[in-house]
Amino acid sequence: MRLLISWVINALALLALPYIFESIRVEGFYTALITALVLGLVNALIRPVLILLTLPINILTLGLFTFVINGLLFWFVASFVKGFFVAGFWPAVGGAIVYSIISWALSALILGDRPPARD
Q1: Angle at the Cα of 103 from the Cα atoms of 57 and 50, rounded to 5 degrees
Q2: What is the pLDDT of residues 27-38, one digit of tens each?
Q3: Cβ contacts of 39 within 8 Å, gap of 6 or more
Q4: Nearest-CA neighbor of 36 among 55, 19, 17, 21?
Q5: What are the CA-CA distances from residue 12 to residues 2, 16, 18, 52, 80 (Å)?
Q6: Can you give the pTM of this predicted structure?
């Protein structure tokens, strides 16, 4: 159940982005759900590999290159999900940052902290 709620929270965070950025468009809630699912899969499968491959440059930039990777993946998802549009690289970086902040805040408000597991 918690996974489904997180999925809807991420979709709602995506729906908020066009109100903040003129260069990001999401056509509807169904598109936001699909985009949130694809973003989750890309972040779970592709992002760790990219982080590992770019570790030297990430160390040199003190971790700031991670923002570039997040923006590129956000832009990559927009390139093949119909109904989700990002105008360029910098809007993708900004959108990825704001998306993660909104998603984090909504998750903290709605889901809250999990109680510690009992043995």
Answers
A1: 25
A2: 999 999 999 999
A3: 10, 14, 73, 74, 77
A4: 17
A5: 15, 6, 11, 30, 20
A6: 0.87
